[in-house]
Amino acid sequence: MTPAGLAVEALARSYGGRRVLDGLSFAVQPGEFVAIVGESGSGKSTLLNLIAGLETPDSGAVRIGGTDLFGLDDDARTKFRRARLGFVFQSFHILPHLTVGQNVALPLVLLGASVADRNARARHMLHALGLEDRHDGAPRELSGGELQRVAVARALAHRPALVLADEPTGNLDPESAGIVLELLRREVRAAGAAGVLVTHSAVAAARADRVLELHQGRLRAG
């Protein structure tokens, strides 16, 4: 594959003698939005944590933009994750004491961007997601669908190489869920990021460019 994107190579993980992931290999190209589905307990969360570098595999590799994630020490991995990964969570994780714009700009604050640069980027992302008039507002003034759009804006604000979405529509009504997923797919493509959606919902997965099913520790085309 090209130097950008995501490559998972022969990834394996066991817990208490039980093989949860059994030599998984797949790739996600820049601009591609891939859904991973599976039953509860199939290992979706474990896979996402491994891709994010939050857990360590028994064997195998995760390469993001050509960088071997587990070839880095803990400190370097944390810095890499902060700079190159974006996360969208089911529960939003929007900080209530910050304005909407400050929430979106938070990854850029952590990376040391100037006030002017992070404000400009936050406004750009909010405009792209139809929330430009909410920049100075409080999160409590937003609906669930709007909060999830803020989470998408925040995940993409620092131009990550990889965007991970963990059940991002589980708390949304069907209409809001459809809007958020379409926006996420569109913005991943526009940013040239690799996007991975982990979900139990076939409806949500249908919005992805490609679907992979996790079954008994292995992936198969959905």
Task: Describe what you observe in this structure.
- With 222 residues, the chain is α/β, with parallel strands linked by helices.
- It has a domain at 31-43 and 83-221: P-loop containing nucleotide triphosphate hydrolases (Rossmann fold), CATH 3.40.50.
- Helices cover 36% and strands 27% of the residues.
- It has helices at residues 44-51, 74-84, 100-110, 115-128, 144-156, 174-191, 202-205, and strands at residues 6-15, 18-28, 33-37, 59-64, 67-68, 85-89, 162-166, 194-199, 210-215, 218-221.
- The strands form 2 sheets. It has a 6-stranded mixed β-sheet with strand order 6-7-8-3-9-10. It has a 4-stranded antiparallel β-sheet with strand order 2-1-4-5, with helices on one face.
- Strand 7, helix 6 and strand 8 (194-199) form a beta-alpha-beta unit.
Low-confidence stretches: none
Helix content class: 25-40%
- What is the N-to-C order of secondary-structure elements (H for helix, E for strand)? EEEHEEHEHHHEHEHEE
User: Average pLDDT across residues?
Assistant: 91
Number of helices: 7
Structural class based on helices, strands and sheet pairing: alpha/beta
Strand content bin: 25-35%
Q: What is the CATH domain class of the domain at 31-43 and 83-221?
A: Alpha Beta
CATH superfamily of the domain at 31-43 and 83-221: P-loop containing nucleotide triphosphate hydrolases
Shape call? globular
Descriptive key words:
single chain, 222 residues, alpha/beta, Rossmann fold, 6-stranded mixed β-sheet, 7 helices
